[in-house]
Amino acid sequence: MKKKGSVVEFNDQRDKELLQAFKSQLHLLGTVPLQEVFTRAAMMPASRFWVSERRAMIVISSMLKGNRIESMNTKKREMYHEICRRVKRILEEEPGITLTEATFRVVNSPAPEFYLTPKSARAMIYRLRA
């Protein structure tokens, strides 16, 4: 569902946070393989969901209409399911809130992980450290 060539306005912030997560796991190097360090960095909590509010709104709106997102990679699909679950909870708890506001709140709240594959995390970290 991502548009080819789209640029996320907060790439620098996400990249900085991912690099910090990687560095926080480097102490494990020697006791676990480097690939495991990338995996653990990708699984660390993030300060927000790394998707734009606009894109999340489009996807969540589509999901609430019953459309499936099976064509996405697994991690993105997991992320959108978590966002949708949280949005539904807000909509139930606060009947007067709009879908846009609920989505905005969720996207800007802490995320349980970066929702990156270890391979993607590795590629980003190598690019950042170059």
Protein architecture, described:
It is a single chain. The chain is mainly alpha-helical. It has 2 domains: 11-47 and 110-130; 50-109, no CATH class. 60% of the residues lie in helices and 0% in strands. It has 6 helices and no strands. The protein has helices at 11-25, 34-43, 53-64, 74-93, 99-107, 118-129. Helix 1 crosses helix 2 (34-43), helix 2 (34-43) packs across helix 6 and helix 4 (74-93) packs across helix 5. The longest helix is centred in the middle third of the chain and has 20 residues, at 74-93. It is elongated. The protein starts with 10 loop residues before the first helix and ends with a helix. The model has no long low-confidence stretch (mean pLDDT 91).
Question: What's the short story on this structure?
Answer:
With about 130 residues, this protein is an all-alpha fold.
Q: How do the strands and helices of this protein lay out in sequence?
A:
Elements: H1 11-25, H2 34-43, H3 53-64, H4 74-93, H5 99-107, H6 118-129
